Structures are given as structure tokens and as C-alpha cells.
Amino acid sequence: MTLRVAIIGSGLGGLATAIRLAAQGLSVTVYEKRDQPGGRASAWIEDGFTFDAGPTVITAPWLLEDLFALAGDRLEDHVRLVALDPFYRIFFEEGTAFDYARDDARMAANVAALSTVPADATGYAAFLERSRQIFERGFTDLSAKPFLHISDMLRIAPSLVRLQSQRTVYGLVSSFVEDERLRQILSFHPLLIGGNPFTATSIYALIHHLERKWGVWFAMGGTTALVRALEDLAVRLGVSFQYNAEVVGLPVAAGRVTGVETKDGVVHPADIVVSNADPILTNTMLLPTSAQSRIGSWRLRQLRQSMSLVVIYFGTDRTYRDDPANRLAHHNIIFGPRYKGLLTDIFAKKRLASDFSLYLHMPTLTDPHLAPVGCEAFYVLAPVPNLAGGQKWETLARPYRDAIMAKLEQEYLPDLGRHIVVERMIDPPYFRDELNSYLGAGFSVEPVLTQSAWFRPHNRSGRLRNLYQVGAGTHPGAGIPGVLQSAVIASQLVQEDWL
């Protein structure tokens, strides 16, 4: 008899797992709360504008290519990935702009030109070598392996010591370069996966090598085009999708999950269940109390959650990309007046500060078809405290939005207010209510050393032998590569356990 698999959620982790398990011959059904696939990588489409709701930075393209290869297919026949250069344009409060360039020589020249410390040029080269070393161990050897037992953690302990993983990303960077702006440039990456550079383990410095070796890419049509291609691939492999089918319970009998219960009261039998939902939702809200570990549930709720986000999607009835005065690239990092202080407010104090740093996405610079002719599409993102901060977003949202848009209009997008024709804003309550994210966290569990590998929610349940977990809150972590790697791990475990 063909084993039946129920997957909760059609985020990138759920889609990748569905494809991998269907390719192994299992009967797979995906249950999705919303009316479209993608989870955080869904899309908002209105009046001819297409906005990616979530991730826009694509790295490690081979992880996507592997999924299509499972069906004897090729990614490039379905989605066109375009290499971006620069990877990011970074703006500082005093007006300096820095191109995080694709070309190694140009990047090194930009570093030397920016830094006020001559030794930083050689320090940067040494940092890149350290990033490569961390990647070879931290990504290649660790991120695609399950950590189900404490012995798994003890096995890698010597490597973690050699990699100085007890150091933070900012601390590691600072040991190689002295210019504060350069330290910010080389340490901001953990923010892309929900981490604070001042507390995230230095293992995440591997991102630099990952980007420099394989590039930063954009999917023409937006990340949503990639999501739709993965959905089509899954369907071709026999996966069934049920949309508007929110899972509200996981019935348990004899130490096994027997299926998934959807909001309409129907229980859908399954032999194997894979949850792409927030691990706290899965283990403390979907499972019956009798199947929960009191200590385990308490521990899950004690995990530090990532920051949340305010994201404003907006389209204009004029273009900026052809304006000779345009300073923007595809990916833009706009640092505010404070770096460590702002991040301390967001992560530790859970305080909404009056200043902010921003990520500004200008996808129509690469793909003009994401907006009507003569128009432009953007989204701007600000890290903010998660809901543990107690902020009243029903009153804070509008003035916070106005401050961000005023900053953009004053310094980057002239006359912006007069030209916005579509706009939407999401804030921490959206992540909690729409995406079922604990405390409205934007990236689930915060990536610190004591919440990594074995310390992170496992890819297989320790109490229920047929329950598996994928996604940002599980090992190895958030970001497209991490989420896709969690699908590799879960599908391998299913194969080992059941096939």
C-alpha cells in the first residue's frame, strides 16, 4: 500500500518536501490555510503590480535545481534566474553608498576605497578565507544532517570550537577589519534570516562565501514565479493541494499522528505528517495535550524568537529607474544613525525606536513587467520588535509608516507621496494572525548558538514516530537555503524510517 503523507503548509519547506517525497513514490497531499502557495513567499497582485510578500534574495541555486532534477527536469526550463550585480547597495546616514559587488576584484577595491584603515584591505581578504572555512564545515557538513540526539551535538563540538562558533558574527568581523562602516557591511547578513549580528553565532559568516561563490539571484516574475514553478512540479509528480484548508488539529493514537484535522471539522487520515508550520504551533497548539511533553512545550515557548517586521508594498505611477538621479540598486540596505543600539532595542529591549534601518527592494529595476508600463514596484522593510514588546500596532502602524515613507521621499524617491497608486502594509500582528507565527516573529526561532543544531526544534518528533518538521523554525534555520535543507533532512528521515 502506498504511504499517505499530509504536509501542513505550502511554504518553500513544504513544497520542497512534497516534491522530494512524491519523487520517492509516496502519496502526498499539502494542506494550506491560504488561497495560494508560498507561505511567507506568497505574492500580492493588484492593478497590474506584482509584489513578493517575503524572501527576495535567492542564493544556493543548486538546491532548487536538485528539486527539478528529481523529475528529470531543469529549473531553467521553468524559471529564469538573473544574477544581480551589485548584490546590495548599502547606504549610510552621512550619505556614503557602497556597492557589495559580484566581481571579487571590484569588491576588494570598494572595500579599500571605503575604509579609513589601510590594513582593512588585507583584513577583508583574510575574512573571506575564514568565511570559506566556516562554509566548508558549517554548511557542507552540518546543515544537511539531522540533529536528533545530544550525541549528534557532541560529535560536532570540536568543529564548533575550531570555528570559534561561540563568537558572534559582528565579533568575528571586527577581528578582521576596523572601519565601523565596513564592520556593518560584513555583519548585516544575519538580519536576512532573523538574527542579530551581535548575538548570532559566527557560523553564519558562511553566507559571505556562499554569495561570493554562487552569487545572488532574482527570479524573473518574482519569487512567486519560483513558487508557482515548484507547485507545478509537485503536481506533475502527483502531489495534491488543498487550499483554504487550515489545519487545526493533529489527532493521535498509539504514539502516532493519525492524520490532520482541518477547520471544517474533517479529519484526513495520513500515515506520515510533515509540518511546515511554526514549531510552537505544531507542538503546543495542534497536538492534543495528552501527546505533548509538559517540559518540551515549556521549553519551546522559552525559545528566543526572531524580530518581527514592518513591510510596506507600494507601486508608483511613474518610473524611477530611468531617472539620472536614481541611486538605487535592486537590493538596497539603508542603515540608520545607530547600528548596535538599534538592534539592542529591537532584540533585547523589545522597544520600538524612533529611528530605523531599512531594506528597500526595487524589483522593477531588473524585471519591469512586475509593474504596468510607466510604473514602478517597491517594498520597504524595517526590522521591529516581535509582539513580546507589547506594542499597540493598531495605533503605531500609521505614524511608523509615515516616518519610513517620508525618509524614502526625502532621500531616494522624490515626490513619492504624489505618485503612489497601490499600497499595502503588514506588521507583527499579521505574522501572528495570518502566518501563525509565534509572537509575530518574522523568521521563527532566533539563530543563536544555543538555539542551533540539536538545540533547535528537530526535524523528526521525539515522541511521535511519524511526525516530521521543516521550515524556518527547525534545523538548520531560516532563509531559502536553510528551509530547503530542512526539506532534504526530513525527506531523508522519512526514507530511512519508512521506505
Label this structure with key terms.
single chain; 499 residues; alpha/beta; seven-stranded mixed β-sheet; 16 helices; 35% helix
What can be said about this structure in brief?
The protein has 499 residues and is an alpha/beta fold.
Strand order of the largest sheet: 7-6-17-18-19-16-20
What do the pLDDT scores average to? 94
Shape estimate: globular
What is the distance, rounded to the nearest whole angstrom, between the alpha carbons of the first and last residues?
A: 12 Å
Largest beta-sheet characterization: 7 strands, mixed
Supply the helix-strand structural class. Answer: alpha/beta
Number of helices: 16
Which range does the strand content fall in? 15-25%
State the share of residues found in helices, binned by percent: 25-40%
Give a count of the beta strands, DSSP E runs of length 2 or more: 21
Radius of gyration: 22 Å
Low-confidence stretches: none
